[in-house]
């Protein structure tokens, strides 16, 4: 082979080698650039989803508190039925005593005004 031809082939080999090294050296930065590009596009949507989820969580917590409070109120009403029965018994007893007192004084219950609740 002639020397100029050999130099041309050597130059081609070194150019290809240099190009390969350049591509390999820059490949990670291209990947990182693509990753950064993806994050830049996706981040606003993800941030919006996060804000929506936080708002829904707050609303859910408020609803849960309301339901728990209502359940507590119902339970307290059920527990207070004992006291209502006691008051009812005492009212019946008071009416019976009033009727008995009126009967001993000679008045009929129809003649008396109804008791006031004040």
Automatic annotation (TrEMBL):
Keywords: Lysosome, Membrane. It is found in: Lysosome membrane. GO terms for cellular component: BORC complex; lysosomal membrane. InterPro entries: BORCS8. Belongs to the BORCS8 family. This is BLOC-1 related complex subunit 8. It comes from Myotis myotis.
């Amino acid at each position: 082979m002639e020397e100029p031809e050999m130099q041309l082939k050597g130059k081609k080999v070194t150019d290809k080698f240099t190009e390969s090294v350049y591509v390999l050296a820059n490949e990670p930065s291209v990947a990182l650039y693509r990753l950064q590009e993806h994050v830049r596009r996706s981040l606003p949507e993800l941030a919006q989803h996060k804000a929506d989820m936080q708002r829904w969580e707050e609303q859910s917590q408020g609803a849960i508190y309301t339901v728990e409070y209502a359940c507590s109120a119902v339970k307290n009403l059920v527990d207070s039925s004992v006291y209502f029965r006691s008051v009812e018994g005492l009212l019946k007893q008071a009416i019976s005593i009033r009727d008995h007192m009126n009967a001993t004084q000679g008045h009929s219950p129809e003649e008396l005004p109804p008791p006031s609740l004040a």
